[in-house]
Design brief:
five-stranded parallel sheet; 330 residues; single chain; alpha/beta; seven-stranded parallel sheet; 35% helix
C-alpha cells in the first residue's frame, strides 16, 4: 500500500512541487477541505505523514493519526503543532527554518520605511483627491536613528546590513548569539526598548516569548518610536498595543502578523493611519514558496525512506521506541 500524506493547507497556489517530490517517494497526497479539528482528525486516521502550514495540528488530530510517522511544517515556526504530543507518539516534527530570509528582511525594512515616510496617510490623501504633503506628520530624518532588533537569527542578521545602508544604528541584546560586527549590544530588553527609535521583532513564538511586549514593555518605548513585527502575532499584546497607539504613547506599528490572526474586520487597528497591516505575507515570493514546498516535502520523503530530515524540531524522538517500531514495519 502506498504511503498517504495529509496536506492540511498550503501557502502556494497549488501542490505541484509537493506532489512531484512525494510521488518520487512513492506516496500519494490527501488534501483537506478545511482546517477544522474534526475534519483533520478524520482524515488523519490512515495517513503516514502530515504536512501543514497554518492549520492547527492538535493533540486530537495527532492521536487519531495512528500510522503517522512525521509532521512537517511548511514554514519556520511550529506553534500550530502540538510538538509535545507528537514527540510522545514518536512522530518526527520538521520545519523549514531557512527559505525566506531575504523576503522577510526586505518586508520588515519596507514597513520601517513606509512608517517613517508616512506613506499610508499620504497615499490615502492623494487617492482621495488631495495633494497635500501636510496630510500627515512631517517625517523624522531616518539617518542616525536607532533600530533595536529583538532576535538575531537568520532574518535579524540579514536586516543588519540593510538597516546600516540607510544610516541606522543597530542595537541588539547581548545574549543573542553571533551578533554581527558593528551592532551595539545592551543587556536587557528594557534597555533596548527605551533606547530604540524602531523596534523590530524576529523571534519564534514559544511559552517564553508569548506576550513578550505587553503594556509595561510598550510603555518603556519612546512616544516617537515605531514597532515592526514580522515574526509572530502572539509576541505582542494586541490590546496593549492599540491602547498605546491611540493615546499617542507610540508613533506607529508595522504588522505582518497579529493576535488573533486575522484581526476581526472591525478591529480598530485596521483603521489607524499610523498602522500598516499586511496579511502574513512577508515570507512570500515566487522563489521562496517554491523553495519552501520543496524542502517541506523533502522532509517528509526523507522520513518515509527511513532517513533523518534536514531540520528536526524534536530530535529526541529519533531514538524513540515507537519510531523504531514503525520503521521496522516499513
Amino acid at each position: 500500500m502506498r504511503p498517504r500524506i495529509l496536506v492540511t493547507d498550503h501557502p502556494g497556489a497549488d501542490l505541484e512541487v509537493e506532489r512531484r517530490v512525494l510521488a518520487e517517494a512513492g506516496a500519494d497526497i490527501v488534501v483537506a477541505q478545511s482546517g477544522g479539528e474534526e475534519h483533520l482528525a478524520e482524515l488523519a486516521r490512515d495517513v503516514d505523514a502530515i504536512v501543514t502550514c497554518f492549520a492547527q495540528v492538535t493533540e486530537t488530530v495527532l492521536r487519531s493519526a495512528t500510522r503517522c510517522l512525521t509532521v512537517a511544517r511548511t514554514g519556520v515556526g511550529v506553534d500550530n503543532i502540538d510538538v509535545r504530543t507528537a514527540t510522545e507518539l514518536g512522530m518526527v516534527v520538521s520545519n523549514v527554518p531557512v527559505y525566506c530570509t531575504d523576503e522577510v528582511a526586505d518586508h520588515a525594512l519596507a514597513l520601517m520605511l513606509a512608517l517613517n515616510r508616512q506613506l499610508v496617510p499620504l497615499s490615502r490623501s492623494a487617492a482621495g483627491g488631495g495633494w497635500d504633503r501636510q496630510a500627515a506628520p512631517l517625517p523624522a530624518r531616518l539617518r542616525g536613528k536607532v533600530l533595536g532588533l529583538v532576535g538575531m537569527g537568520e532574518i535579524g542578521r540579514a536586516l543588519v546590513p540593510r538597516a546600516r545602508a540607510l544610516g541606522l544604528e543597530v542595537m541588539a541584546l547581548r545574549r543573542h548569539r553571533e551578533v554581527p560586527a558593528g551592532v551595539r549590544t545592551v543587556d536587557t530588553l528594557e534597555a533596548l526598548l527605551a533606547q530604540s527609535d524602531i523596534v523590530s521583532l524576529h523571534l519564534p513564538q514559544t511559552e517564553q516569548t508569548l506576550g513578550l511586549l505587553g503594556a509595561r514593555e510598550l510603555a518603556l518605548m519612546k512616544p516617537t518610536a515605531v514597532l515592526v513585527n514580522t515574526a509572530r502575532g502572539g509576541l505582542v499584546d494586541t490590546e496593549a498595543l492599540l491602547a498605546a497607539l491611540e493615546r499617542g504613547a507610540l508613533a506607529g506599528a508595522g504588522l505582518d502578523v497579529t493576535d488573533p490572526e486575522p484581526l476581526p474586520a472591525d478591529h480598530r487597528l485596521r483603521s489607524l493611519d499610523q498602522v500598516i497591516l499586511t496579511p502574513h505575507a512577508a515570507f512570500a515570493s515566487e522563489g521562496s514558496l517554491t523553495e519552501l514546498s520543496q524542502k517541506a516535502a523533502t522532509n517528509v520523503a526523507d522520513v518515509l525512506r527511513g532517513t533523518v530530515p534536514a531540520d528536526v524540531v524534536n530530535p529526541g524522538v529519533l531514538d524513540s521506541v515507537s519510531l523504531r517500531l514503525e520503521r521496522s514495519r516499513s
